[in-house]
């Protein structure tokens, strides 16, 4: 990413903005996010207790994860570049009376220049596969985190199995997601993400997979990282 350019795809922002009003409908296109949220929240908190911590959620969308982390006692800022989802997040926080959560329309790179080393925990979930330069986001997340703090990512592996499950299965067969939600070539191999993390000064602490059972319609954590996977890192 060159200086002065925005690390965002206008088509991606428009795609999620169009659906913003459905973000907190648990039976909408965002049902998968609502279903996986308790799993990813528990996984994050097992490694980085949230109560009383300064937490940043990068690419927060409508605020599902940010809201739940605030309810665990964290002081949370959610950031995104899509205006409509942010408005939905703000409205939900008001309606639900969620404490200690705020939202800003700002890029991770811009905020990193403003607040380097400010946050105990940084999360960036289901976002890296939607931006032109994921390595830039990883660097920004590292910069925003305090030394010794935790940075968490989740994204999708790039391989034949992930194409079959995350695009063909999820978007065309099971209709879990709107068609066109993901682009296969934007998926990120763990080896690629590990390189981004090393370059940013993040120590790779662990990886978990996320699997969906179409019969029970439930998600679970797994050791299989060939489709959806989550990564825990620590700022050195």
- Name of the top-level CATH class of the domain at 10-153 and 189-209: Alpha Beta
Question: Major beta sheet, specifics?
Answer: 8 strands, mixed
Query: Could you give the order of strands across the largest sheet?
Result: 3-2-1-4-5-8-6-7
Q: For the residues shown, what is the average pLDDT?
A: 94
What fraction, in percent, of the residue positions are helical? Answer: 25-40%
Describe what this molecule looks like in 3D.
With 236 residues, this protein is of the alpha/beta class. The protein has a domain at 10-153 and 189-209: 3-Layer(aba) Sandwich (Rossmann fold), CATH 3.40.50.150. 39% of the residues lie in helices and 25% in strands. The chain contains eight helices and eight strands; from the N terminus they run H-H-E-H-E-H-E-H-E-H-E-H-H-E-E-E. The protein has helices spanning 10-18, 31-47, 64-71, 83-96, 108-114, 134-144, 160-173, 190-200; strands at residues 54-58, 75-80, 101-105, 119-125, 145-156, 202-213, 218-222, 228-235. Strands 3-2-1-4-5-8-6-7 form an eight-stranded mixed beta sheet. Helix 5 packs parallel to helix 6 (134-144). The radius of gyration is 16 Å and the shape is globular. The mean pLDDT is 94.
